[in-house]
Amino acid sequence: MGGVAVRVEGLWKRFGEQVAVAGIDLELPAGRFIGLVGPNGAGKTTTLSMVTGLLRPDRGTVEVVGHDVWRDPAQVKARIGVLPEGLRLFERLSGRELLGYTGRLRGLPGAEVDKRATQLLDVLDLAGAQHKLVVDYSTGMRKKIGLAAALLHNPEVLFLDEPFEGVDPVSAQTIRGVLERYTASGATVVFSSHVMELVESLCDWVAVLAAGRIRAHGPLAEVRGDAPSLQRAFLELVGAHGRDAGHDLDWLGGGDR
Amino acid sequence: MSAATGTGPGVPAASPAPAPATSVTPVLVRLKLSLLRNGLRQSAGRRAAYLTSVVVVLLFAALQLIGLVALRGTAHAATVTVLLVAVLALGWAVMPLFFPGGDETLDPSRLVMLPLRPRPLVRALLAASLVGIGPLFTLCLLAGSVAAVAHGPAAYAVAVPALVLALLGCVALARTVAAANVRLLTSRRGRDLAVLSGLLIAVGAQVVNFGAQRLGSAGLDPLDPVAGVLRWVPPASAIGAVDSAGDGAYGAAAIQLGLALLALLALLGAWQRSLTRLMTSPDGSTLQPAGADRGRTGRSAGLARLLPAGRTGTVMERSLRYVWRDPKTKAAWVTSLAIGLIVPLFNALQGTGSLYFACFAAGMLGIQMYNQFGQDTSAFWMVALTISSTRDAYVELRARALALLVITLPYAALVTVATTALIGDWHALPQVLGLSFALLGAMLATGAWSSALFPYSIPQEGHKNVVPGQAGLAWISVFGGMVAAALLCSPVIALVIWQNVASGGDRWAWLTLPLGTAYGALVAYAGLRLAAPRTARRLPEILAAVSKG
């Protein structure tokens, strides 16, 4: 505890004309539940992809638990779990087959994989659907099977990109329970979201990202400051407060139709 | 870009139109045109592809038209035109099964929120369906058919309504089938089937080709009775009516025309009924089965126990499962298997074949090694996250090659032996087998290599195998690879040529089998070894390239 889980220095990524990530420096403390928040298009997914080695940065370095992601991939890949957003799974496998496949690719012994898979399927409430193909899963079930695949090798740091997006309240509560138990054991969770209430209730450390830059970071209370809620603080940080266009729509909801 | 104003999707139909209710027909026709134009505006490549296809279709239609007009007055004119129109109608009927969701204006789920009554909606949709290359092509063909059989003023008078009825009949047929199948096509299994149905075209074309060659020797006489029946079946009966009117059989002409009209009305009625049902009942794809199977746990597949442990077995198992379960992979495999069998066997059956055509089986199946990671789609990230060394990449590629060999080796051997049995040239069997295996090894090597260097996305929906913008990559990957594979095989090819040309060379024919096999294995090994470090180094680039589908 107390160490640095992820260290990012001078991270840049440009897609054609558009700069997606414009020089991020960030140190994420180990053993925390960390929220990466920002509006749509702020660069959250791009940042997480570069941190997890799925996207090559134009510039900058990323270290996860002391190992460089690009120079020492073997050390890093064994220690992280990832649930990306917008990428497919091997959807023509059943939930159980997907876990078996992922665990064995990770080099775990077969019997151990099967044992862990059974437990994860049970805890995540997927046991009833374990023989169904993932392509037929609902959004919540997909997120849960993705989370199970990311947890299977007991990583030190877990990266989740929008894990609650489109997930029903019951599945969200299940995911939440598993993540809380996981961080309580000293592991680090980094997750991105634009739902402030969720971040506020889950995280103890946040980083605010807007237009490819870090606007604020630190313990939740510090970032929130004097604002009544994280939502307010966030709107001020990204400069979206006081935009009230109500009077332009005076016909809306009126008597005449 | 003034064209964009006012006709954007959703805008016109949503306007309240308080004045005497404007008809939806022009609105939907304009919507169709806007969608067509906006689709073309997306990329220059798409525009070029569309324009090329328009030109090709128009040229083809013009040739057909000329051919049909030239047919005028010949003995079989009526037979040919009636059959042609019947086949055309069949094409219209099956087209929506092959190209589901190809036309957004006709997707009732997009119109469900609009206050439209079924009858005007059907009229408007029918009109909108008449816009496009397909209907234009059909119109040309029908015009040619009518011109070929119309003799005399009565026939000309019948020709005009016949043309309209036949065209509307074709379009309405397609729409009715599409609407009736929307429920199937919006479910996952239905879409899987639709992808596979592309195979029917591939295999069917070969069979038709074979049949046509047979027919070519026998003439058109056997087809006359078929046409005799079809001339009473709408919409071909419209052409039959023109022919009957030309012969002076006005009663028959009236009945045939009436049949076409009745069929059109029946189709429109059926279409309207299924549209109404579709717009008032939920989409089949969102329905979940109530019960879940909890019973079976920890079933160990029989397949897994036969495969080696570790990454090799894991990857092989997944690859083999995908051959069966993933519709795109399955379609590609079945196509390869079918063509690999049909080309050598049909050629042998026709007596024109050479035993060396049997190499087709190995060549066609070797293609499956190309773009391995594109077949994973963006799920490749799951693989990328577990490859952290050149060794991992090598094992991954080798396992994929092994999975391919599990099917390909016995299949290629079987096709070669079957072709040999048909041709009877047992002496050349070891040569052909050796050449096949060498070719397979070379395909695996170049396939692994191009998988690492030139990956591209395979769209999961529809029939395209390359996303727009990556066609060049796909070309380099597959055709460059195949040329390279042929070059890599040249020592074995040279050996076979020497054995066949040099005096006494064929005494050494048996030697090609062990030499070719060993050479293939060596080349494959070298290819995998060379591809592995490139794969390991380019993981993010590969992921980006295969995530566009």
From TrEMBL, chain A:
Domain ABC transporter residue range list: 6-236
Record's subcellular location: Cell membrane
Swiss-Prot/TrEMBL GO biological process terms: response to antibiotic
UniProt xrefs under CDD domains: ABC_DR_subfamily_A
Claim: Nucleotide-binding is one of the keywords in the record: yes
Molecular-function annotations in GO: ATP binding; ATP hydrolysis activity
Annotated GO CC locations: plasma membrane
Membrane topology: Peripheral membrane protein
Keywords: Antibiotic resistance, ATP-binding, Nucleotide-binding, Transport
SMART domains, alphabetized: AAA (SM00382)
Extent of the signal sequence: none
InterPro entries: AAA+_ATPase (IPR003593), ABC_transporter-like_ATP-bd (IPR003439), ABC_transporter_ATP-binding (IPR050763), P-loop_NTPase (IPR027417)
Protein name as catalogued: ABC transporter ATP-binding protein
Organism expressing this protein natively: Streptomyces minutiscleroticus
Automatic annotation (TrEMBL), chain B:
Annotated segments matching region Disordered: 1-21
Protein origin, superkingdom: Bacteria
Record has Transmembrane helix as a keyword: yes
Keywords: Membrane, Transmembrane, Transmembrane helix
Regions that span the bilayer: 48-71, 77-99, 120-148, 154-173, 193-212, 249-271, 331-349, 355-373, 401-423, 429-452, 473-496, 508-528
Protein name as annotated: Transporter
